[in-house]
Amino acid sequence: GARGEENSDGSRSGTGGVSYEDSKDCILEPLSLPENPGGTTTLEGSPSVPCIFCEEHFPVAEQDKLLKHMIIEHKIVIADVKLVADFQRYILYWRKRFTEQPVTDFCSVIRINSTAPFEEQDNYFLLCDVLPEDRVLREELQKQRLKEILEQQQQERNDNNFHGICMFCSEEFLGNRSVLLNHMAREHAFNIGLPDNIVNCNEFLCTLQKKLDNLQCLYCEKTFRDKNTLKDHMRKKQHRKINPKNREYDRFYVINYLELGKSWEEVQLEDDRELLDHQEDDWSDWEEHPVSAVCLFCEKQAETIEKLYVHMEDAHEFDLLKIKSELGLNFYQQVKLVNFIRRQIHQCRCYGCHVKFKSKADLRTHMEEAKHISLLPERKTWDQPEYYFPTYENDTLLCTLSDSESDLTAQEQNGTVTVISEDTSKLHALKQSSILNQLLLHECLKN
């Protein structure tokens, strides 16, 4: 066994925190795991965990109380308890081992208040994975937990008797869990990940539904006064997603069980780093990703134009595609309309009633409440040459407007003059006949 003795005056030692205050912060953090993992074990039906040294029992969900009990009553500290995959099995293993050999055969002895009088000194025992037996135990428990999780995941993947209700439209779904998850992602832009990455799906959905029933936003986790207010908030703020920093959800993603003591963020970082290390200087398949397009009415940015259109329709009730279709707008008319709206919003002026406001926030509130966003002025107001020029030089939205064959047809119907570039392949002839010569001559005469 590993033996050792360290003295300190209450400060943190090299092997871990030893004071009671330190232990509260560093050791007593519980690791949440699925309550009903796949597979059967001999521990099923055991709702509590015993103390390593005495007959005290504590509920599995209250392991922090057991840890405090063992520190106060028995002066034993378990290091990095949050990295123990199965706390119940871990405790039962060491409970048996401590009946076979003295605790000092396994634990480092840490003396606190070593400079104080002898009667004020005290010894604590540190159980950690520096001990090879403890390390092997933790690794085995991790492997067993991963095996159970993968069995549970496979069972859910093959289960065609799933029954669930959409949290947003109350539509019922029968069959495989993927049908409901894909529906929420496609129809409500609520994506919690690929079905094959999720485990204990029913519990996950129940957890989310309970939060919504308690009028709590899933992303920012604020509570609202009624269901409609919550619904509008999540739609307008684009909060139809879960909070990635909430560790409560970790137990529902298989990636969190892959490696001992590593969260999905650490695993992902390692994968990214490995990808960068093995990246070759081959740019042949490189593709440029477009810059995010910005909403016409707020600061929302979207990776694709489709997502931006959905946002403007959901958050501002402005359907650019519908307006284009109903008014028969060609590409250049769409450009002028976008630039017109951009300029009006930039000047904090409502184009529906021509009232000017102190800020864009006040303007947006007014236009949403008065329903003036969809109240476009007559075509002659915005279909002007001045709006050919972008209000913002880097307006990516202008680059994504449709320029389809139907636009060309509409262009011909509306009698718009088509601009054809000069043939730059015949430079000598261009120098002699280009319209630019006349323009330059005219400028010289003026000057």
Automatic annotation (TrEMBL):
SMART domains: ZnF_C2H2. The keyword Metal-binding applies. It comes from the Eukaryota. Residues 215-244, 346-377 form the C2H2-type domain. InterPro entries: ZN622/Rei1/Reh1_Znf-C2H2 (IPR041661), ZNF277 (IPR040048), Znf_C2H2_sf (IPR036236), Znf_C2H2_type (IPR013087). The keyword Zinc applies. Residues 1-21 are annotated as: Disordered. Keywords: Metal-binding, Zinc, Zinc-finger. GO terms for molecular function: zinc ion binding. PANTHER family: ZINC FINGER PROTEIN 277 (PTHR13267:SF3). Belongs to the ZNF277 family. This is Zinc finger protein 277-like protein. It comes from Equus caballus (Horse).
